[in-house]
Structures are given as C-alpha cells and as structure tokens.
Amino acid sequence: MNEDIDHLVREIRDKPAASTRAAARLMSLLENHPARITELYAGLADWPEPLMVLGITGPPGAGKSTLVDELIGSYRKRHPQRRLGVIAVDPSSPFTKGSVMGDRVRMMRHATDPNVFVRSLAARGHLGGLALGVRGVLRVMGLMQCQLVLIETVGVGQSEMEVAEFADLVAIILAPGQGDGIQMLKSGLMEAGDVFVINKADREGAAALQSQLLATLNLRTQTGGSGYRIPICLTSALEGTGIAEFLDLLEEQHAQSGTQWLARRRQRFEQEVEQAVLQEAQHRLIETLRNTGIASAGIAGVLRGETTVTELAIALLQISAQGTSQQNEGHADERRFEN
C-alpha cells in the first residue's frame, strides 16, 4: 500500500467529523506497515489529543468487553457532543493472523453512532497482546478529535502491563471466582493498576474479592510509602449498575491529573522521535558502510592506529549526508583509510 500519509492526515484534519473512511485507511496502513509511523511525527506538536486515554485490562472472563460497551453508552449520554474511540486488541487468528473480532461484535449497538469509532487490532503474538500498530492508531484517533480513547487488551497475564506505555490511566478489571488475593499479586497486574474495577458485582463472592483486594492494595501502599489509596469500583455490566460511578471517578481523575497526563504524553513523543532519529541514523550508517567500500579499509585503519573510531564515524556521517548522488566524493573519503 503506497497511499500518501500526508494526504490522509490533511483530509482528517480538514474534516475530522466526516473523515471516518480516511481515518480507517490510515489506521490500516499504520497497522500493516508500523515502520511508517515515523511519518506522523512531522507536525505532531499541534495535533489535537484526547482528554483521556484509558487502558482496560485484566484476566480473561472478567467482562471487559461488556463493561466497555456499557461505558461507551454512559459516556455518550453524558457527553452527546463528544467523540469516543475504542481500540479493541483481539486475539489473532492462527490462520489469517487477523483479529478475531469478538470485542467489536459486543459493541455493535454503537455501530450507527457517528461519534463512536471502534477499531479492532490483531495481537499477532506481540508481547502484552498490544498490536504493533496501536501507537499509530492512537495518534489518528486524536486527530479525529476523540475526547476519550479506550484501549481494551486481550487479557493474558503479566505482559498486560505493557498497556501502561500508551494509557494515561490503567483500569484493572476483575471478577469473582478468578483467584484469591495472592494469585492477583502474583499476576503482575497489581503494579500496573491505577483504578481497580470488580465487575460482575451481582455475583456471589464479590464482597470477599473486594476485601481481598483492599488488603492487597493496602500492603502495596504501605510498601510503596506513597500514601495514595487506589480506588476500587464495583460494577455489573450485565445489569448496568456502577457504570455512572465508574465514569464519575474517571472524570475526577482527569480533573486532578489531566495536565500531568498531557506533559507525560509530550515527553513520550519526544522519546519516540529521539529513538526514531537514532534508528534512522543507524540505518543510514550501516548502508554507507555496506555500499561505499569504506568498511574494511576504515576499520583496518583504526586497528593500525592511523585513525580513530570518532574520525571514521565522522567520515561515514559526511558520506551519508552527501547522498548517493555524490558517490565520487565517497570514494575519495574511502582512500583516506587505505595504505
């Protein structure tokens, strides 16, 4: 796919409310060719961004998808003018490597809502179940002016902590009958959670789970020494109870920490650009080493003490900057390192 990313970005920016098709094409492009995400960095500083990126994670069977579906409905009723995006990271098909869109099926009642955009991504075996293209998809949802973005992950254990790299706030969804407090502590999810939700609270065992979770979180608070008490919500997505209270808590968290979230995102953007620049520079240096013939002569010169690694690196950078149209100058630099 050779679509012009700049053209798609301009189309989305010009008409964010009527850009669903362009956004879907751009997301597909970035998911299938994640190396092209670097093309989005130019001008990223003035892109619109969500008010909140919420990670939804937890063990399988906790009712994450049903809870997300209810949360979408509650958010849309409360904020009818706002746009909402959902990144549903689904298990991969062992045959096609595409996503098994179970999560998206559960949200079909929102399919006709122009202010709800649901995107399924295939995990493709990636650590944490997060698709390689999720970073690009998240950027595009910001460009579409989604005020809230939910990232729902597959739910496969310790590696789910990876969602914290993308989300402002991570909600761990648990349900009765999924193990005691010690098992929760062992799972590794405890360290990642900013908010804990006991879903299926209408079932027997919800109160016991809440007590176990409180004890575990108190131990974490005492050990960490921060004094901050992590909130716990009780919900029943099936009955629709506790959803409004959960949304109240999220908006309270945004009011308290929204500025810090924005600053943290900007810091991540800068780190991503720095990594991308270093990777591009490394790639160009490797190509220069391979294509100019300077490698063996230059390295031999370093070993003989006729030049230094720093001088060789500077020469390579200069050749790389000159480009392929000035290969003759590259050959002149190459002769500097010959006997």
Shape: globular
Number of helices: 11
Give the H and E element order.
HHEHEHEHEEHEHEHHHH
Query: Between the first and last Cα atoms, what is the distance in angstroms?
Result: 48 Å
Strand content bin: 5-15%
Average pLDDT for all residues: 80
- What kind of sheet is the major sheet? 7 strands, parallel
Strand arrangement across the biggest beta sheet: 3-2-4-1-5-6-7
Give the SSE layout.
Elements: H1 5-14, H2 20-32, E1 52-57, H3 64-78, E2 83-90, H4 102-106, E3 116-122, H5 134-143, E4 146-152, E5 169-174, H6 181-187, E6 195-198, H7 206-224, E7 232-234, H8 243-292, H9 294-303, H10 309-322, H11 327-335
Parallel strand pairs: 1-4, 1-5, 2-3, 2-4, 5-6, 6-7
Helix pairs in contact: 1-2, 2-5, 3-8, 6-7, 8-10
Q: Could you characterize the architecture of this molecule?
A:
By secondary structure, this protein is an alpha/beta fold. Helices cover 48% and strands 12% of the residues. The protein has eleven helices and seven strands. It has helices at 5-14, 20-32, 64-78, 102-106, 134-143, 181-187, 206-224, 243-292, 294-303, 309-322, 327-335, and strands at 52-57, 83-90, 116-122, 146-152, 169-174, 195-198, 232-234. A seven-stranded parallel beta sheet has the order 3-2-4-1-5-6-7, sandwiched between helices. It is globular and about 75 Å long.
Which descriptors apply to this entry?
single chain; 339 residues; alpha/beta; 7-stranded parallel β-sheet; 7 strands; globular
